[in-house]
Amino acid sequence: MVTYIESLDVAAAPDILVKRDRKTQDDKLKQDYLQMKVLELAPQVYVSGQVFESDLKLAADQNVKSIVNNRLDDETVGQPKSADLAKAAEALGMTLVHFPLESRSISKETASEFARVCDTLERPLLIFSATGVRSTKVWEMAEPEMTRL
Fold it and tell me: For the structural domain made of 3-145, what CATH number should be given?
């Protein structure tokens, strides 16, 4: 079951406000104080849309220990590379795993492998994709095989 939460706070959680800049092809679009919305998928497991380096500090402040990136690198212009996010996460004491998925091709075998990966990661766990839909889909497919919920 997916429960909507306003933020990442493991305990109870108000909105997380993010101040960040994103580059477009032609110019820099400044977006101040964007909200990072997350859903609780299971105890200490959360999903969100695209995570940027500035969001990693917020996640670390909320005691997130592990992050799974379900986006393919270079899906969109201005999207951070998974390797860059992993370096930034590591500097903040978190583990970031790149488990890229295409939503139309999530097989039962892929979901089983995702379950095995998630079972090895320290919680709280944040999973993300472009909008969070892909990550939610693979979690729901994998959840019956999880040994650690």
Answer: 3.90.190.10
